[in-house]
C-alpha cells in the first residue's frame, strides 16, 4: 500500500492545532493552497471532532455506515461515465447523478476514514469526466431553454458541479499539482464557464435554477481560490445581453428589467424576511441545498461575508419556515408546482437542518427534526448535530399557527398555516411564485393528522420517472394543475385568475387583512384579492373554531365576491375520499359530461348534479378512517356539481380524483359561506363508526354588507354562535355595533365569535 | 360499603385450592350452583394466576387498563337501555352493542379487581334489560329474514347474549337467588327461546349467523347449567318445519335437505379439515369468536366433550389457517364478501389467538401474533399468553406458501396462498362459500409488501356506517361485487359463472390439479373449473418464478379455455395505481362508455381502447411507490379495454378504481398467458426511480394442446426459459417428452422450468 503523505500531513496539522483550533477556524491564514483543503464543508476542526468521536455518535455513525455501504458497492461495480443521452429517469441521467453523489461521499469518506481507495475513486472518476467533457456537444435532448452537456439541462449540470466541487476539495491534496491542472483546465473551468458565460439565460436570473448555477460556480471558485469566479457566482455576469421578454420552458420570464442577479440577488429576492421562498416549499426544499451548502462553504472560507447574517439571518429563518410548512408527518404543503410526498426527510433538508443548527445559533428544536430524519451530513455540521443529540439537547419542534410573508420585503401577501387540534389549514394569499406559480389566489388546502382532506392537486409531473414525459413537466401541468379551477378558490366566468397569464400574475399579489392566532378558540386569517379579475374584489376569511362542546375544531370559510358586473362564480372543493351522505338528492348522469373547453375545465368531468333546496346543504365523506362534512349556505338558484378530474387526459397523466363545485350564475355579488368539520372516525378493524354525523345544524347569514358580515352557526344541540367580521376596518381597538332586526351586536376589533342564545 | 360475601367466599375457595388447582380444574365436582361461577372463560385457576401476577404481566396489564378506562368512563356516563329503533350505525344499535361489551368487561373486572361497582353496573344494566325485554315486539326495521328484538336481526341479538352470558356468569354469585330468577325468567330464557325456537330459519342453519345463535343459547345454557338448552345449542331444534327453498336476505338458502344443524354441525360443515371456513377469512374472523369462546366454555364446563379435539382439532387449525390468510400487515385476503382492512388485530382474533394458544398445545408462534396484537383477553387464555410472552417464549409466525382445502371433507377445491419474496398471490378454486360467496372461480389477487396490487374488490358495503344503507349490504354488492366480471378471472359472453345463481354455484366447486411449493424458484398451483360455464373447461395455472437474475419474483399466469362452441372471453385485471407506460397506442374516449347492461358490466365504464399489434403487449403502472408491469400474449384480433368501476352507481356506493380487460371474441378455445412483475421502486422523497422498466422482453407460446402447454419467457438480457406443463397428467413421476420444431423438450412431473438457450 502506498503511503499517503498528504493524509499524514493533514493529520499532523490537526494534531498540532489541538484543542484551540475551534476558535482559530476563521482566523488562521493558510500557508499554501494545500493547507486550505478540505475547507468547504469539512474543516480541520470538524474533522478532528469526527475522528475523536467516531463509533460513539449514533446518528453520525449510522449515516456514515449507510454512505459507506452504498459507496463500497459502487466502487465494486466500477466506474461508468457514459455519453449523455437521456432525460431524467433514463440511464445516462441517473448514472451521472449517482456519480456526483458517490464522488461527494467518497471525498468525505477519504477524509474521515483515511482510506485511499476513496480518493482514488474520485480521482479516476474525475479523470474520466475530464476526458469526456471537452468533446461533449450540447445534450441531445432539446426540451430545455438551457441545455446542459452531461444532462439535458444546465440545472443538472450545476447539481453535478455543486457536489463534485466538494469531492474535489476533499481529494485536492491527494492529487499532484499536474493532475489538478489537467482537471481544472479540461473540466472544472470550462464546466463553470459553460453554465454561466455560455448560458446567461440560465445563470443570470432569480430562480432556483440560477441559484444552483451560481452555487456551482461559487463552490468551484472557493476550491480554486478564484476570486473573479467567486464574484461571478455572487453577483452574476456583468453584461449578458438578454432580452427582457425571454422565457424559460416552464413559461416563466427569464428576468425583469434591471433585476439584480447572482447568488446574493437570489438570496435577497425570492426569500421574504420571514424566510418564505416565493416558489413554495417544494422548490424551497430543492433550493435550500445549494443555499445552505454554499453559505457553509462561504462561512468557512470567507467568514468576512457573514453570509448567515445576511438579510437579518434569512437563511436560518428559511430553515424554520420550511419545517413549519410541513404537515404532522413532515410532508410539505402543496403550494405552486409541488410533488406530493416530499418531506423534511429529503437529503437536502438533512443538510439544511444540520447547517441551520450549526451556523444558526444551535436551536435545540432543530435537533428533534434531525432525530426524526435519523441522518446527518458527514461534515462539520453533521457531527455538531450528532454530538448534541447524543448530549440530550434535543427539544421538540412545536408547530404553531404561523404567517409567512412573501416578497423580498415581506410586502407581497403571505401564506398562513392555521393549526388547531389535528387540523392544519394552509391559506395562500402570496405573490405569484415565479415560473412555478399557480393561478390560485386565496386558495386553501386542509390536512388532518397529516392526511390531506381538501387537496391542492400539486403538479402534473412524475419527477424523474422517464416513462412519463421524460420525468419532466407534463402538458397537463399548464392546462390543469396551474389553472384556477384546479384549486379550492373562486373562479369567475370559467377564466383563470389574471387570465392565466404569467405577465399579469407575476405583477400582483393578494393583501393580508387579518391574521390573528392569539385566541386558540377562534383563529382568523382574512385576505383580499383585487387584481385576479379586474373589477371584482375577492375577500376570503378563514376562522378555525374550537368549540368546547366538540372534540375537534372546525373550519368556517367566508368568501365575499363583489363585482361591477354580473358573472358566474364557481367555488370548487377538492375533497379526497368516498361520499357518504348528502342532505339533498342528486342525479348521477349515466356517463359523465365534460365541464368546459379551456382553463382547466376541459379536464373536469361532471358526474352528477344536485337538487338544492332551502338555504343550507350538507355533504359528508369518509377519508382515511375519518368522517368529514361540508355544510354550505346556498340559494335555490345555486348549482352544485359533482366533478371528477381526468377528462381530456389521453395518457393518464392526471389522477382521477373527485371534487364538488358550488356555482352561482349571473350575480354581481356572491357570498360563499361554509363549514368543514372532521367529526368522526371509522376503523375497519373494530368496524366502529364514531360520531359519523355532522354536529352542525345550520349556518345562516345574519347580515352582509360592504362593512360587516355576520354568520350564525347553530349546532345539533340548538346552541347558536355568531361570527362577526368587519370588512373595512381591521384595527384591533375599533368598536363595532350593528343592529339586525331586534338584536344589537357589538364587539371590539376586526372580528368576534359570540354565543347568540 | 356493603360487604360482598360472595366475593369473600370465592376468594377463600381460591386460597384453599392453592397451587394444585391447575390439575384439578376439570375434575373437581362443584358443590352447588354458586361454586360453578365464574366458570365459562374465567376459572378459579385462571383467576388465581391473574391475581398473583397482576401489575407484572405487561400485555395483560395493558389490556386490563384499556378495558378499565373505557368501562369507568361508561359507568360515569350512566346506564342507557334505549327502545330499539335503528339499523347498525344508528344510536340504539350502537348503544346496545356497547352495553354488552361493557357488561362483559364489567363482569371480568369485577372478578379480577374485586370492585363491586363493576358487579353493580352489570346488575343494574341486566335489570334494565329484564324490564324492557318482555314488552318488546320485533325490531321495527324490517330488512332481515330473522328480525331480532334489541337489534334489527337475530344475529345481533345473539351477539348480545354471547357477551352477556359471560357477564352474568361473572356476577352470578353477586346476585341473590331471587334476583337471578327474575333475570332468568324475564330475560335470559325468553331471549334464548326467541333466537332459537321462534326463529328456526335463523337458528337451524349452517351459517355464521346460526353459529352465533347456537353459541348464544349454549353460553347461557352453561351458565344456567341447563342441559336441555345445551342440547338445543349443540344439535339444533329437532323439528323446525322449514321449507327447503327458503332463503335469507343475502340470497343464501336457509338449508339443504337433511342437513344437520346446531353448533356441532356448524363446526363440522363449514370448516375444512385444514381449518378453512368456507365463507372466507372475513367471515371466519367473525365466526371465530363464538366458536372459540364457546369451545373454551365447553372445555371448562364439559371437558368430556373434548371440543378442541373435535374433527382432528379443527378449531386450532382454523386459528392457524386464518393467520395464514392474512398479508404481511396482518390484513385478511379478500375472498367472497369481505371488507378491506380487517385484520388479525380485530378483538375476535385476539380471543382466537389466546384461546388457540391456551387450549391448542401452546404453539409459541401464536405468541408473536399476540405480541403484534398487543392485547389479550381478560381471562384464563389471556393470562396464559401474557405470562408466556413475558417468559420470552414467543417465536416468529413464519407465513409460507399454503394450500387450504375447502369443504367438510376437504374435497371441494381449495384456496392457495403462494408466497415468494414480498409477493403473496391468493388463488381461489374453492366451493361457493355459502350466501357470502362470489361467482369468481379461478380468480386471484396479488399483494406486494402487504400492499394490494391486483385487487379483489371485496364487498359493496360500509359495515356499521349508517349513512350507507344502514351499514348493511348495498344493492351493488349483488349487482357488482359478487359478479364474475368484478374479479380477476375469465368471463364468458358477459355472463357470470353459474349464471350468477346461488342454486348452481353452491352445488359446484373447482378441482385442484397441481400444488407444488417445494422448489422456491418455481412454485406452481393449477386448478380446473368445468361447471362455471357448461360446455367450457377452464384451467388456470399460476407459477411464481424467482429468477436468480432478478431481485423480485414474478407471476406467470396461464389460463386455458376450451369450449364446445364459440364465445367471447374477457379477462379483467384490476390493477391499483396510476398507468405509467404502454407498449401500444390507445385511444382514450372523450367521455367513457358503459360496458354492458347486466352481470356487473353495467357498473364498468370503458375509458379507452388499445391498438394491439404483434404478439405481446406491456402495461406498466405505479402503485404505492412500486413499479409493476403486466406483459401478455395477444393475437391481433384481441381487444384491450381500459375500464373504470362506477357506472350506474347513483349513490357513490362503489370505488372508482381502474381495470384492464383483455377480450377474445368468437373463439372456441382461448389461451391467456401473462406475466406480472414488481420490478422497481419510486420514492417521492429521494425522487429516485429504480428499475422503472420491465425486465421481460417477451413471452411466447411454444406449444399448446390438450396435453401440453409450453411458454417461453425471454428477458431483456436475451435469456430464455421455458415453462412446460402437462395438462392431463399430474403424476410426479411421469416422464414427458415433446418435439417442437427441431427441439425436444423433456421433463419429469407435471411441470418444469428450464433454460432454453
Structural summary, described in words:
Two copies of one chain form a homodimer. By secondary structure, the first copy, chain A, is α+β, with helices and mostly antiparallel strands. Among the domains of chain A are: 291-397, no CATH class; 402-693, Beta-galactosidase, Chain A, domain 5 (Distorted Sandwich). Chain A contains 19 helices and 24 strands. In chain A, strands 6, 7, 8, 9, 10, 11, 12, 13, 14, 15, 16, 17 and 18 form a 13-stranded antiparallel sheet that branches. The first copy, chain A, has a five-stranded antiparallel sheet with strand order 1-2-3-4-5, with no helix packed on it. In chain A, strands 19-20-21-24 form a four-stranded antiparallel sheet, with no helix packed on it. In chain A, a hairpin with a 2-residue loop joins β22 and β23. The first copy, chain A, is elongated. Mean pLDDT of chain A is 94; it is low at 1-30.
